[in-house]
């Protein structure tokens, strides 16, 4: 079965063709058009600009994915698209395109919850993942821990009390004038550091729980930068900037993994999935691998191209979900509205 997967929930316009086989999903093509240069000067995603750019990118992105896979649209057995959550103007682009194509070609269609997509990114390398799984989804907008009993159901265990982990990277990099998006830049900068700066103090909560909070980390970064005149203009080659980036990265990865052992025990986890853009982080990948080994959990961290938003993860999730079959008129109320599929936020 060939699936065309489309994703445009934020600032990446992506399409992929995936073949679902008896031994799991196989990638045939993946195209991702970035809008980093467009949003860079603003230091973050501007929703209206993103939506407009998606409109310009969507047709070329889909055509290129089909061309690279050497599979024409009429051979596509299923169209999967992100139906939320995300920026509404951005979502509407691939959502509308997917419905138009499905209608025109009489192709079965399925809407996919974005976070279910991030979970299913792990199917490419670990189609035989044992469940229940602990699923850590970390991106620019989400820092959520779920229990998954299979590839289609996520049950929320905990989430950040304020900012997402990716936000700490993006804003930290912005304060240091390193560029946008901040995660990869902080990662590269910390790898050059001879040593880390002083560690950041983890947040403490009255109930003593290993909960997440990243807004204090942004403030702490701001205070540290303000205390050293010129640091915000020193650039990625400055050892002080490198040391600070390393401390930031160490803090985020340590804090993210702190609640894992207790939850693994509580839910009787057999595996750990780490996905979302922040799962590209080198430190987090190394630490998660060491922790999974210590806890005896099978680890699945998708390769970086499947961690950031992409059409392949949506196709992989779409393969596992029930489709809306043509004829369309009979299915008018069966899920074509722009609603999440009921996965808890
Ligand atoms: O999943 P994603 O592509 O989009 C959202 O759904 O948000 O994640 C983007 C986030 C950004 O905050 C970006 O800075 C972060 O992922 N990111 C990283 C790395 N690569 C991307 N954070 C830390 N280290 C990285 N290597
Ligand atoms: Zn995402």
Write the element-wise H/E pattern from the N-terminal end onward.
EEEHHEHEHEEEHHHHHEHEHH
Low-confidence stretches: 335-345
What's the name of the CATH homologous superfamily of the largest domain? ATPase, nucleotide binding domain
Strand order of the largest sheet: 3-2-1-4-5
Under CATH, the topology of the largest domain is which?
Nucleotidyltransferase, domain 5
Rg calculated over all Cα atoms: 20 Å
Structure description:
The protein has helices at residues 36-39, 47-69, 88-105, 114-120, 165-175, 182-191, 215-227, 239-257, 260-267, 282-295, 304-307, 311-318; strands at residues 2-7, 12-21, 24-34, 78-84, 109-113, 133-138, 143-150, 153-159, 271-275, 298-300. It has 345 residues and is of the alpha/beta class. It folds into two domains: 2-122 and 306-318, ATPase, nucleotide binding domain (Nucleotidyltransferase, domain 5), CATH 3.30.420.40; 131-301, Nucleotidyltransferase, domain 5 (2-Layer Sandwich). α4 (114-120) crosses α12 (311-318) and α5 (165-175) packs antiparallel against α8 (239-257). The protein starts with a strand and ends in a 27-residue tail after the last helix. The model is unreliable at 335-345 (pLDDT under 50). The site of zinc ion has 5 residues, from α4.
